[in-house]
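look at this fold:
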Amino acid sequence: MRSLSYNFTCCTLVASCLFALACLVSSPAIFAAEETSLEQLPAESGFWVANEHQVEQLSVELGIAGRFKLGSWTEVRLSLPASSFEAQPNVSVIALDSDGVPVEIKAPLPETVDGKFRYRVPVKIGRRSSNLQIQFVTGEPGSTKTTIREIPVLELAEPIQATQRWYLQIGPDMGLAGALQRYGSRLGDTTVLVPLVDPSQLPKDWYQMEGVDLVIWTANDTAFVDRFESSQLAALHEWLKLGGRMVLSVGSAAADVIAETKPLARFVPGKFDRVTEVRDTTELEALVGREARIDRAVGGEITVAVLKETIGVSRVVEGSRQASYPLWVRSAVGFGTVDFFGFDFTAEPIASWDGREPLLKILLEDISDRQDETQGSTQSGSSVAHFGYTDIAGQLRMALDQFPGVRNVSFFMIGAILVVYLALIGPGDYFFLRRFNIRMEWTWVTFPMVILLASFGIWSLATWSKGTALKMNHVEVLDVDMASRMVRSTSWFHLFSPDTKRYDVTIQPNHIPVTAWNQLESWQGLAGSGLGGMSARQSISTVPTPYSIDFAGGDVTDASLEQLPIQIWSSKTLMGRGWGEMDEIESEPLNERESELIDGLLHNPTDMTLTDCYVFHGRWAYFVPKLPANGSARIVPGQSVQNTEKVLKRRRVQELASGDALWDRQSTDVARIMEVAMFYNAAGGPGFTNLSNRFQSYVDLTSHTQGDRAVLVGKVETPPLQIQIDGAPNAAGDSQAWSYVRIVYPVQRRSDSEIAQR
């Protein structure tokens, strides 16, 4: 009987030891520890969890044209009879984040149209196979009525992976679908082209288009263009200015769509002059390497929308100096770009021209990271298996998850502790009692003492390795465009919690040169299908109670996180996006000289001193040691100038010419990762990193360095935005921050006549 009690006690306390040891390796994966699979959700298309209001009709739409991108903001549209409620209900939508934790977002006030409430609710979905829960609540606390509808996401819209490009096509197909299918790289396989048939599905807030990489608009139908509301076009323009990309093709209908006061005039890089017929298309034919004239395809001339006072870079110009017609103009619009084509790709003779597809291929090469993409893709499978990510945003996420003072305990040490522990409570206890001639019954005293001491030691080791303070890693990029006066910020921050606790997280502007500042906060997912990725098959979180993203009312967008749960010794990945517009500022453009060198005065419109600055324009990079707060510095051609690629790749003479071996995909050097992410294509893109940049490609400003813009990037000591946890900033000793400011300057390029004279 004594032996049985001894063995039973051993087994019980070994189990307690294993539980204590589990604390040593506690990680964010604990959020997904439950075995219940999302695949077990109901198969039917939605069901009533509760229907106390007896709602008979509820129309639910998700995304744009039946699509949405995982990990990006999108829109849920609700429509139901107003007669179902005695008073206007409180409406909220609950979706799962990338960790499987439910997130609640309250709906704004609805529109009432034809006796129906119509809601547009921003939402961010982190799981492919998950449910949306829609709640309607009326009444006072204690006497409320609740209606809940739960619908599988896959029944509402088809998700697009975060590692895919999403091209939204408005108007007829200009031939892009065929060009993507026959493209000589993986671009067609990684791109989803979605036609927008119903204009009402275009959001009225720009961030609900966050997942869209490119908008292609063939504007040849005036009636279709007129169906878009002004608020939708304003949101599209805001999306463009904050980093979107757009291809706009017009033709004979130009006077009705892009003339002054017309719906699409704001997207045009210049002022509409007239519509004319052009027969001489030598430059366009030479660009695609086709000798056959365009007008001979069907025996007609090409109809062209002529612009005046154009801005940007004219890729194709026909005609003479006295009468020139820019057929293709690329222009920066804030932090985004527009490719404007003055002709209609779907109209003759372009539609029948055998050079249309090669022209579209040139366009696709310019707007994608195609360079060496095939080479980079060959290692994508091994990247997922070895690193857990294939996108550079994933490498930044991995680097930010390394906290100072948080040590990972190896499995070797855990195994050694377990062996020593078992030796002490088993033979160690037995031989101790025998050695000192103590009766075996005393094991009821010595055994618990060993257990208590071991548990205390293990807990002390766990506390030493994980710490007792809330820790934060924070990266901030503030962008300022001097031409449009737009300001935007992108924040990535990871929180490591010493306790199982819920937090309120807000972002407050600290050094932002904008009065009306908009701010979005949300979780951030891992792109891809690796462990923890949004496209991976994962289990449900053990956190049943949702936290909320609270959109404060008012003229500006202000969203914060409330009651965000983080389990003990786990981290949470978050991000923020902010934007606003500066007041009028005085700044002259920089000037382009010979060999694409530039000079001029660099003005700093912020109250932050920038250090270790580089100015990128074309193939040149200029080093500027310091740019004072609200001050200026002059850039001189030939002074401190280097090759852009060498600066970004940090290539030295003795290194290989290709430079591919320079990038370490296991590196956790946040500063180095940000250097490349901010100018990804200029650094060589996937050919240099063997990683894609599709999840948050708007961070890359390479396109602005290739035209009539120059981009300065510098470091600042204090982050432009302050992250507050439960109403107070985190202690400086428990936080790491990397802060950058980029300023985009217009460049006055030399005209063709000036180049010819020199």
